[in-house]
## 1
Amino acid sequence: MGNSYAGQLKTTRFEEVLHNSIEASLRSNNLVPRPIFSQLYLEAEQQLSSLEAGSRADNEEEEEEEEEEGSESSSPVSYQMKPPPEGCCTTDGFCQAGKDLRLVSISNEHIEVPSGFLLVGAKSPNLPDHLLVCAVDKRFLPDDNGRNALLGFSGNCVGCGKKGFCYFTEFSNHINLKLTTQPKKQKHLKYYLVRNAQGALTKGSVICWKGAEFRGRQSSSSTCSSTLFQLPESSGLSGSISSEPLPAANPNTPAGTQQTAAGIDHIPSTAAFSSTVYNGKESPKQQLVKNNLSALTRPSVLGTLTNSGPPKKRHKGWSPESPSSTETWNLQLNPQVPNRIKNGHGNFPYLCGNINDVIVSPLLYTCYRNSQSLSRAYEQYGASTIQPISEEMQLLLTVYYLVQLASDQVPLIEDLEQIFMRSWRESHLSEIRQYQQAIPQTFPQVPSQIAPVTSAQLPWLAGLAASSCNDSVHIIECSYSLAEGLSEMFKLLIEGKLIKTNYVVIICASRNRGIDSCIVITGKYQARVLSEGMLTPSDYQKEVNYQLVTGKVETLGSFFSTLCPEGDIDLLLEKFYQENQGHISSSLSASVNKSTAMNGTGAAVCTSYEIERHQIRPFQLAVAQKLLSHICSIADSSTQNLDLGSFEKIDFLICVPPSEVTYQQTLFHLWHSGILLELGLEKEHLTKQRVEQYVMKLDADAQIKFKVFLQNSMQNPHTLFVLIHDHAHWDLMSAMHSLYPQTELSTGLVDRLLNCREVKEAPNIVTLHVTSFPYALQTQHTHISPYNEIHWPSSYSNGVDLYHENKKYFGLSEFIESTLSGHSIPLLRYDSSFEAMVMALGKRFPRLHSAVIRTFVLIQHYSAAMMAVCGLSQMKNYTSVETLEITQNLINSSRQCPSGHGLMVVLRIPCTPLAAVAYERLYNVRERLALEDNFEIILGNPNSGITIGKHFVEQLKVWQKIEDVDWKPRTYLELEGLPCILIFSGMDPQGESLPRSLRYCDLRLINSSSLVRTTLEQELGLAAYFVSSEVHTEKAVVNDVLESDPEKLSSTDNEDEEIATEGSASEKRSPMKRERSHSHDSASSSLSSKASITAFCSESSPPFVTAGDTAKSPHLSNSTEENTNSHERQKQKVDKGAQTTVSKHLPPVTEQLDTKQNIRSAQISITSSSSSPFSSSSSSSAPTQNSFILQTSQCSMTKASKQPPIVFLPKLVYDIITSTDSSGLPKSSSLLPYHSVMWASSFRPLMSKMMTCTEQSLYYRQWTVPKPIHMDYNNRNEGRMDTFHPRRLLLSGPPQVCNKSKIGKTGAYLQFLSILSRMLIRLTEVDVYDEEEININIKEEPDQCYHQPGDTWPDLETFKKIPFNYTIHDPKYEDASLICSKLQTINSEDRSMSRRQEDMYTRRQTTRMRLSKYAAYNTYHHCEQCHQYMGFNPRYQLYESTLHAFAFSYSMLGEEIQLHFIIPKSKEHHFVFSQPGRQLESMRLPLVTDKNEDYIKSPTFTPTTGRHEHGLFNLYHAMDGASHLHVLVVKEYEMAIYKKYWPNHIMLVLPSIFNSAGVGAAHFLIKELSYHNLELERNRQEELGIKPQDIWPFIVISDDSCVMWNAVEVDCSGDRKSDYTWTERNVSLKQILQHIEATPNVTHYALIGMRKWSSKANSTEIKEPFSCCHVHDFIMLNVDLTQNVQYNQNRFMCDDVDFNLRVHSAGLLICRFNHFSVMKKQIAVGGQRSFHIKSKVSDTPVSISPAQYICAPDSKHTFLAAPAQLLLEKYLQYHSHRFFPLSLKNYSHPVLSVDCYLNLGPQIAVCYVSSRPHSLNISSSGLTFSGLLLYLCDSFVVASFLKKFHFLKGATLCVICQDRNSLRQTVVRLELEDEWQFRLRDEFQTANAKEDRPLFFLTGRHI
């Protein structure tokens, strides 16, 4: 626009000043425009106006220049302060002489002021809360009009008395202002100081410096106050002033211009208008002067911020970024209407003059601009084809929108954005669809179906649209500039022609320049709401406080006193008090105190008061498990961000908002949950002080406690610390952008603490945010991954109750549902009487904030209602139906319970000063009415605890059975059953939970002009409730008719147990869609508060409302048409004699019946408080559909706890809540989610009602961005692609779930801590087998000591003397056959096998052991030490490995065996490869003489199957980091999965023919491979000059379940040689192996093993340190000595016993080290369990008994898909008695088993003999056998060998061979028919198909 207006408006000074001022203010990029109209109103208010103007001037100029200097583009000259003289005082607030100048310190001192001087207050930037007292010559100060101040300065220091300061610079140095800008008196001398009545010096009026209000400025880190008054703490108030330039104004602004944005606390960027003005939400990036709180009903001006050229020369210092400075103040207007201007398109003119009463906002402009930016979704197709919505269409749609708004509605920016979006989509539907179908780029532009609106048509079309709205919208068309239209608008305003007009749309359409437009809101109500909505919470509180302390509200009080025809209410109260003093106290308190009296006599006492014990609900357990699952997912991910295996215990800290009640509430839950004892954090005797260590209030003291927490986390790296941030949406302020660092320490505290570097980097801290309103943590820059969000589960899925919960949640959606037609109890209501009175008073008192008016009206209503209930029936006309209902039911509630239980009423007053006023007033009224023993009034202040009267404390103690003398309630939950009004203050609820006795939630005073979704939902969340789903919640309520359709009386119970019901019969017949009930306002008729109101008959009438009083009260008429007919029908029903009353389950709401019925109900209620007032006939005459459930009088609290509370809302909020979009989504859900976030784009899809919590989260993550004041704002700048913090989780659940029914988030996260702790303990513990050795009573010889107990190694010669112990002692073979020798004396009692028969299949005995640092681990273990060992390193790909074939021949198999090795690159040094071709030649073996403390000589082989995850193959810690060779032996089909899980392990892959083989095959191949490798190494190293016998011949064969190893330390220091003590401790496997490897003459031992660990190990085992017996599980095998002894490759079970017997019979030594033991972990998967025997024919799993494992040859038996050998072994284990009937329990006559050991079951003993020549066998002389078992016998078994043995007559023989032919040959070769008798039917085979090569049996009897 530039100077284009020059010459147009020079007719008057007024117009020019106005015009220039508008342009000057809008040229500034500062986001808060200049106030324009001050002194605008009636002369009676002139004084106030000047005070406001001065106040604003003071605050705005306060930081003007330093802010200008903070702007880069204005390139200021920095000011260097003169250094102070040496030795002088430099303390802020003191002069250089060291004297105190602060007003608070010297206000009472006598100060001599020279003549002509005045005391003034100076502001220091370093002391924002203080004024410094100065004496200044008044000639240099301005007069009342801001003029006539001499240039220069003259002042004195009042501290040290120094006089004659002639320069303000010199003076500012002396008083230590420490300025960084040029000192100016206008900037720092702020207030006159005056003496008050007590003689103290106080702050007076503002010094009115000339033109101070018009100076543009850019805000800096210390932003100015924008309130009308200056309290001591008001130095940095306005969060709405930002130095960030509006992007629209200067899109090319460099990023550096935002460097001063420290004050950007509530500033949105592009969508500022959407978030503040129309929603009334507090978001300050608006160019709105929020200072005019006095002009709350003035017109508002919404303008744009554009730089369109340099200003006139008088605007010196102008730059595109700097403010303009106009000093004109000529404008004098006297309209009664406020102005608020929104600029829409184009440039906005200057406004100048007294502009306090005009607010200019750029938000509409921002909305327009956002709606013109194309969505990124269409950028890929090119911007030319799809055009944004035109400016003309935008403005026209805006007019349409304004036209359809009702007179009591306020515009919402979201509505406008959605209108634009829908219009754009519809006009470009075809292009969008074709783009979505990927049309080629050469796609021509499709003409829009809607003809575009031209600028010439626009004014005409706008006027046409506005013509139907009864002048609510007025269109002004101007030709040249907006200034012309504004002038006309102001002229019409002054002339009173805009009285009916709410919106004035000014359009300036020019052909050569587009359109300029702005909208002026002239509607008083709309302007007030939108103006108040711009206040920050801090400004809001301070403005209200100012109005209270300055006495402005006194006019309101005097007005109220005139309403009552009988005089002031206080006089009435006093009179009433004097008249009824004695009567009231006795009659009323009688019922209250009745309970205590009756309790003593044992009479009726209320039994419904249940103290719910803490128990875990299904919901909580489900949530806790989901949290645990997410924690495990983080730990299991490959990022290694959480190593759960390294933590031994849990610690935690719960952070809560600085609310004393919330703090105490959390302590209470923590105390009763027992979690501290469970986690082992505290001992049994828990004190409150100890519990407090785990809960931190986010207040000034939080940093100390948090520092301790951080220190603990650093000092305890093996403790997992869980940092729980409860109520996490509270205070998300960025610490960097905190506006009030000096005054509000808690602001930004969450960011400073929880987002500090120590928390982010600590690997042992997990942060859990818990909130009901997670939206602000779900932005584009959030720290929380969407995968780490846990949402409260839904209780139903497809109609199935998932959690069997007997409580049903009643939240926001259910409240909204209850307002639909057809529901008898609308739980959400508004009070139209109250709203009407507030609106009327708002017009009468335009200077008062609406919160003040609303509060005073409501206090008046409550006071009048209390008086009416107490018998002053004339006061019913001065309250509303709703308030009277609340009060009556509150006062009467305690009378209906024998114990005096009552209802709670929550009166929500966000503003703390107003809450204090309300408390004081209601308290006084209650005292005057002598109700102090009837109900309590509690002031709930977030910063203080609960204070209640002693009488009520005693009542609570009786109810809760508390005997502690000093007890008092600390949480609202402990007030359950107490009849009370809880005045709930604080700008936001901070997590306080309310008890089940809550009946009414009065939210009529919430700040309805500043709403975002979080604010709205958390206010309504106070009423959220769990109702019992077991009890039907009654729906019908008679006395609700006053505000609901009387026809609701006939509504029915719904089967769904919800409050929602179907409509009446007439509604059901109607085909129309259900509409919202119009009856949720008071009295249906929207009468004023003076309307006559019917008598109130609720659950019982008050004692003071007699029948006569009731009859006097006239009937309330219904004026609405819809209620008339239904009311007539209802009257007919009543007249027919249907005696109805309120159901005892239902809320005590006011009843509307005719007078007779009222009287009768009242009388009945009075006379019967404990028995049923109705006969059966009267109840049967009630409506048939069970509308009224008639019960005996019962406790009001009980009824309240079975139903959700009733909620009263402001009308504005009610409309937002109950209006829905086409999908049924409430409008509140589409509001901006949080005040410190903003929409990323106007082009966003609409939310859907069907969205799940997860989908909503993703929606907000895509479409919202944090403002600079949000703590996540800088999360994008960390240079990482992934900005999510890996150890941060978010739990969101519905509000107030927390505690009312103990089904809540607190319980859930405490339960999570419990199960997480248990899991960590479980991770650090294993179940190991703990079983005593078996068969210890079977002695083969008398006890004899061969070694001393303290011997370290066995002596070879001594050891050779020890006889071999054939008996198996390993408990895993408890069900195996006993092995006999000739020395055993066995009888059946010794084994008592029958005892074990029934226990055979039971679970083996285990014990839980804590893992030591030397344990072996499975794949779930991650720690930094063994990352490289495991081969998992996120920086590299998985370790490369190569596949090598290794072949050797084995004569017994008759073919060459080919094995494959998978060798990782990191392990190749263990092998020898041929140089050309890199063929694998051998595995390196060390020398016997090698000694290396960090090396294990024996290679370890671990055969495994089915345990790729659970096998304990990580031996890094067990080996204590020593170098070792470890080979996993796996089957071919499992190779890939093992390689995936263990990429850095060597694999030995068995040939495919062994895929179905057992462990015997693996042992066989390991041993044969090792011997072959030993030969290769001997040959290779022989060439190097090393003797073959020097090569290390041992290998280790270990089970995959060996977890820990122990060593016994024996102390033989006793007096006698036989005395010794021993202790067992966990040691590393390295220590044990190195010890065994160092055994003298170790190569002479064939097998070396150790004990199986048992906690019951006896001293006998320890006494003899070495045994010659069976060894199992973990053995060292000498492959050289055992060259000719093989494992049986066919075996599945007992192959180690079989091998031990073979080794011993070969004359080789087997040594067991008894001082060493191995612990075996119980692993539930894999191993032998992986073999499943099933039918080969049918796929369906059928259990097959072992008896079916064999069958007759050639039979049609079902063949089984299992190896023949497995079937054989399993059959013999369970059914061998069929083959050896004489052997059953005949231990003295065992079965002779030749060359093998097969388990024949525990009730049959076997005797093993070897047929090999020179083998060691027992002497069989004197032994008679009961059977003979020949299993696959080879050529060493001959007939002569068998004839050495003697058998019982009738002994049985069993011969087993590979085929039937071999069977016959064996019988012939061994001449078996000589002594044994065979029958044809005695031949059997395993139940295998022929191709599976079954085994064949032949049985016979000894002749």
Note: The chain is about 30% helix and 15% strand.
## 2
Amino acid sequence: MAAAGALPAEWIKNWEKSGKSEFLQLCRTLSENKSHENVTFRDIQQALYELANHVVKGNLKHDQASNVLSDVIEFRDDMSSILADVFCILDIETSCLEEKSKRDHFTQLVLACLYLVSDTVLKERLDPETLESLGLIKQSQQFNQKSVKIKTKLFYKQQKFNLLREENEGYAKLIAELGQDLSGNITSDLILENIKSLIGCFNLDPNRVLDIILEVYECRPEYDEFFVPLIESYMYMCEPQTLCHILGFKFKFYQEPNGETPSSLYRVAAVLLQHNLIDLEDLYVHLLPVDNAILEEHKREIVEAKQIVRKLTMVVLSSEKTEEKEKEKDKEEEKTEKPPDNQKLGLLEALLKVGDWQHAQSIMDQMPPFYATSHKPIAIALCQLVHVTIEPLYRRVGVPKGAKGSPISNLQNKRAPKQAESFEDLRKEVFNMLCYLGPHLSHDPILFAKVVRLGKAFMKEFQSDGNKQEDKEKMEILFSCLLNITDQVLLPSLTLMDCNACMSEELWGMFKTFPYQYRYRLYGQWKNETYNSHPLLVKVKAQTIDRAKYIMKRLTKENVKPSGRQIGKLSHSNPTILFDYILSQIQKYDNLITPVVDSLKYLTSLNYDVLAYCIIEALANPEKERMKHDDTTISSWLQSLASFCGAVFRKYPIELAGLLQYVANQLKAGKSFDLLILKEVVQKMAGIEITEEMTMEQLEAMTGGEQLKAEGGYFGQIRNTKKSSQRLKDALLDHDLALPLCLLMAQQRNGVIFQEGGEKHLKLVGKLYDQCHDTLVQFGGFLASNLSTEDYIKRVPSIDVLCNEFHTPHDAAFFLSRPMYAHHISSKYDELKKAEKGNKQQHKVHKYITSCEVVMAPVHDAVISLHLPKVWDDISPQFYATFWSLTMYDLAVPHNSYDREVNKLKVQMKAIDDNQEMPPNKKKKEKERCTALQDKLLEEEKKQLEHVQRVLQRLKLEKDNWLLAKSTKNETITKFLQLCIFPRCIFSAIDAVYCAHFVELVHQQKTPNFSTLLCYDRVFSDIIYTVASCTENEASRYGRFLCCMLETVTRWHSDRNIYEKECGNYPGFLTILRATGFDGGNKADQLDYENFRHVVHKWHYKLTKASVHCLETGEYTHIRNILIVLTKILPWYPKVLNLGQALERRVHKICQEEKEKRPDLYALAMGYSGQLKSRKPYMVPENEFHHKDPPARNAVAATVQNGPGGAGLPASLTINAAKLEESTAEETVDKLKEKTQGAVKVINKAANATPKVTTSNGNSASNSKIIKEKDDKEKSGKEKDKEKKEKTPAAIPEAKALGKDGKDKPKEERANKDDKSRETKEKTPKSDKEKEKAKKEEKTPKDEKSKTVVTNAESKFAAEKEREKEPSRERDVAKDMKSKENIKGGEKLSVAGSLKSPVPRSETSESEREQKRRKVDTHSSPSHSSTVKDNLCELKDSSAKHYINHTTPALSKSKEREVDKKDLDKSRERSREREKKDEKDRKDRKRDHSNSDREVPQDSTKRRKEENGTTGSSKHSKSESPSDSPRSNEKEKEKNKSKSSGKEKGDSVKTEKMEKSSSGSKKESRHDKEKTEKKEKRDSAGGKEEKKHHKSSDKHR
């Protein structure tokens, strides 16, 4: 394609040789290239131009060029034309040049090529002067003139009739003909003949005649029937296009800048279109403005609307405002020049007026949506057409009763749309017309109302069931059309109407027939999409927001009324936008809630419904975070919305279904945040509060009847909830949401923890759990009090279905079923009463019990499936069902509460009497109200009293079958606590109180197999685990429960008489824990008052210990929960001064540590600390709380040692031991008449009877822990710190080491534990106190040894005696047990030693064990494993210790020292040897035991051998000199060490630490030393008594 550049210079130089052929070759190839036609064409032009250019420049001769061109011409047909183009270009170029030579060359070239290009082509393309010089024309001037004439003739001369030849008479006659009176029998055919005659006669222009006919028709529009046929028949003589052109010409005439097309012309065009005399397409092109201009204008409107919106949303300063206004004025002035009117719209209006819907529709389709109808005349014309079309149907179904209405006349036009006679007809045209109208239906409120009424009528028919299947399908289609119309027409039109409340109400009449799902869908479209569809709506939205801002800025509590009216006015037409803004403000400022709620009273029903939708939409907003940034609390926007919800739904009749379904859906999706809304709604609408901060008075009131609850139970006296709670109930029942919500909440409680709470902060998870639980309780309470019995029973399935099929947790399932049982029983009871009129109390009770049996029998069967069969060995299904089905209302009458409320009313009445200003009639009303209330309350109290008596009678009859105790009492208590008390006491505040009352009730009823002591002990013993696993609100309820339990215990503790009366002779206070049965028990088996006080002290100590532990963990949950619990139990704990001080120190420490870190903990701690200080004056020293009289404990010591103990012991065995203990104690009491001993023996039992909860499950409460707890107790009680230190050089370290090493270590290793353990102890970080202890231990080993020697001797002696004394009746029961006891329990026994006082275990246990071993020789019996043993052994150990402590003979200290020196070395050697043997044997025994019970006999024989061989024969222990006993003592220590490790391993270490932390400071320990020395002196006397006591019991035997 070289030509594209230029011809190479070589070609020109060597033209003749090679250039010519090259050029020809190039032209040939270009001509043959057909693929790119236009490219080829340009390239050929370029090549020819280059060649000619060389000729002009003189590089090539013109004849050479003409030769080659003559060859090239043949390559293409159009080559001559291309050449002419090239000449034309060169002609222009050369004529401009001054060099004449080039012009000459050009002329020569053209002349040479004249034979190649025709003259005519050149004349077309070349300049006249050039043509003249070429000789093609003579004169260029003449040529120019001639061409002008030809053009004029061609383009400008009109072929018209000469006006001079047109007869004006002809036209005059024509006009007269058309303008005559047409009312007679003149037809269009007749006139047409006349017109033809006139045209012929006067030689008229036919087109002009047609024009005049149209003019006349314009002036006489009423004669359609005449003119239309006339024009139609006239058109047969003309070309079809003529009429259209004439009309177009008429329209063009008015298209001047200020021209206005007359409506008559539009009408004529419309009628002609309607009769198809012209085509719309043909006429449309003649009309202005063009479609593009319309589109531009539409876009411009949208942009302007957006600018207005932007201006309104901008913050404009006042100085800028004035400038803005001035600018706007200038702009408006510029706009005054009016553009030519829109002829397309004019024609459209005319078409609508004549009823030509088809053509009108096609014009509208050419324009942007709603552009046409945004012009009012068109909208009104279309509305009028719709009026006409729906008239017959509206008259038939739409007119409201009593309304006359003004009928609308039909269009006198057969081609107009057919009128609608049925709903089906609406689909054909009307719905379509309405869709074109869109938001502009607002121009005709009457039509709006008619359409809505038709909708209502349709919905009525749609919802009636009498339709056939085909009709149903049609109706479905119609329904969806109606929804579309509502979405696209009705709601947007309402937006543009100016606050028309009636229309809003009218629309609601139709809306309320839609299900809420459809309604909300419509509101969503309206709010989020409709407003963006049209510039007018965009403006309205901005103005609404602007106005809403204005109102909201000024809204306060004081101006609620005027602001409310403004809000109402604004809401009638734009509720979605307004509410959206109001809600956004409420989410930011919660103090707006009250004024906003009050100001919403001027809304229409539709607006309330929209408000409900807006609230749900705001709640579901996915962009909003439901948690605050700290991730521990629920966002304030959600809280504000929730409380607004509650207030607004209560005050106004808004439909709740959507909101409730939303909450249910969120729960289904596993999200529980939104329960906050349900909680608020139920609280406000039903007046049912849930609060953890209830006072005890309120709680008490809540246990009464409904009236008392309303008067005294709630914080806010929420009155007048009858209507709102009815609405809430109806919404729940109509949409079947009552039970699903309950079940979802019950299931979601665990969902919160295991599914929802995965990533969340622990604190938030707790909050959500509480919220879920509280809402369930509140909602269940609402259902129970508001649903009728039938409704309730119909909806709530039986308990087994709830738990097994719906997987409802048991506590929640019973909570839901409880009202059902109560309803059932009362209705059954009423039935029976009616059947027989017997009025005696006895009869009534009998009927009540019968009705209970009838109702509860199926429940008893149902609950069996809820737990494993094993459970029912201990507690009966009847007991379980009874516990879960009763409430506080059934157990006690809150007389105080009733009295309090009645007195309040009396005071009110007095105040009314004294009030001088109150008008008399109001006084009378108020007094009547108060009197009526008073009567109601008294009546209610009476009713409840009767009910409670009946219930107690029923329980009295049931109680014997309650606790089966097929295993042990301890197991029974475990099951009771595990399955009944603990789940329920944290369910609600009232349930917490109920649980405590129920325990007391079971005690008072003297229920067989129920150990009250055990129960209380397990509740108080180790609260750490329960506290740590609670949420905040659960901790509060658990605190209430403990508070009520403590209240009972404190009452018993306070006065001997009360104790004797309420507990003295009750089976719950037996200290002998037989597996079954109760034989009335002699006094000796009962825990006496003084020992009970000791036990209470132990409980207080345990509570302190647990509290201190929790406070020191540093864990948020532990600290928070224990502080909540402590605050709740403040009235009854701490009562003992030193325990109170220990707590105070810990709490003070928390206050200091948490001040900066965790402010909420700091606040809790500060609050508690303040309250604790205020309680200080009421605390008492320990010796006032219980008599600390150590010698008294001797009496029981020896007996205890017979008795086994420890966690793994068989029950009957432990029981025997306890029994034995008591019997011997009794005897000694008789003989020695020592009251003190009587007191003591029982304390053992008390302790016996109180194992820990956890132990019972076998999980975690380690024995060593128990021991240490006891130690701690004594320490903190400032008892025998020093003794402990003096008497056991390494007792505690041993235990500790043991704990670490575990029980499976070989015994040999343990022999060295003494030293090792001391080392381990030293390794652990020590507090000062610990260090001090260690020092003391090192300092005084000698003294201690000597003491232990003595005491051991004594203890052996006592034990020996004791063994011989066991009463025969015990022997039978206890046979097989003993063998096991030694293996299982023996190990733990020694450990349990430290129970009552921190005296070393080592001393006590040796002698105990020996006695036991001897027993083993004689007894063996099958074992029942039980945990009761735990405590028995604790007791015994403790008493044993005391005994040991105090049996030191009254030797002077100097003597002791001498003995020490002599025997110390001997004793060490012997004990070591024995220990080694001992340990080996014991190891084997242990292994055997763990493998199987069958090997017991072997073990026991081994043990016997071992004893005979290795122990310093205890037979001689009476006579044995003090010097012998150290062996046993040392050995005992080792044993003790090995055993204490049992199951407890790590626990012991922990508790050890705790123990240390709780013990006093150095000073205290010194103080203790002194104390203990004094005690020792006292004790020696006690020891002697003890010996006597043993002898006496021996004789008795």
Note: The radius of gyration is 55 Å.
